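Our collaborator T.R. sent over the components below with a one-line note: 'Predict the complex.' Nothing else. No constraints on interfaces, no templates requested, no preferences about which chain binds where. So this is a plain run: every listed entity goes in together, and whatever single assembly comes back becomes the starting point for the next discussion.
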Amino acid sequence: MHRGKDLPDALGRPELAAGRKPFQSIWIFLVADSVSFGLLFLVFMVERLGQPVLFAESAHRLNALLGLGNTLILITGSWLVALAVAACRVGSVDRTRRRLVAAIVVSSGFAFVKIFEYGSKVGDGITPLTNDFYTFYYALTGFHLLHYLTGMGALIYLAVLTVRVHEIEARFTLWLESAALFWHVVDLLWIFLFAMLYLLGVQT
Amino acid sequence: MKRFEERKLGVAWLTLVVVTVTGFTIAEAVFIKPLSVALVMALSGVKARLVLYRFMELNEAPTGLRVFFNAWLLICVLMIFGLYSVA
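Returned assembly:
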């Protein structure tokens, strides 16, 4: 394994890392997080086996168009964050900030859609206590929403930091890359939630 | 070089949008189960892999991470499709 040897060097002097990226500790968290979500998907699907009709009918009442909209929002936000990382790597502070702000603005749409969606569900009298499907629906999307809020917080913090930064430092790049990785996982998990809850709901 | 990297990201984004809309259209319009369900889940797997490889640069990550995320994604797709189909 070569990366252990490269780590201190790459952290202090990324320009000397010979094109190889330093290992980022956020990956460890992301692996643990993906395992947790994978297990939640499994529990949901196993519960579904016990009451397929109830799950099918409930899932059918979700608004798949809202799910589609939120998927497109997260995909676009992820792309803009990846572009911000690319700008950061070539040392352009202004471009990094502009792209981060664009990512934040686009991604904020996810929260508005979610508020509207939860609001209309609760307005219809559908709460986590309605049935087992909706317990899962609120728990899974709520847990995901917590991730979304954490990621947005990190992006906003980094965007604010760019105002004070005149020259991009290695540490800032590392933070931005870590926040970006986290943000892409928010997108990644939503891709599966969208398919499992909304798209398969349409199919039933 | 820079321009090339950014264009690659743009292509990935456009592909993600097209695959997302395609998956949605199949879910809304094709009801030949389990084929339609298999297609929806396979397309989700394609999207997840694009995010992992294009945005998260998994190709540059250590082997352990590559193996983990590929396995995770395959298990999620097959598990959801399998358990949905037997219900």
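Summary for T.R.: The CA atoms of residues 70 and 114 of chain A lie 8 Å apart.
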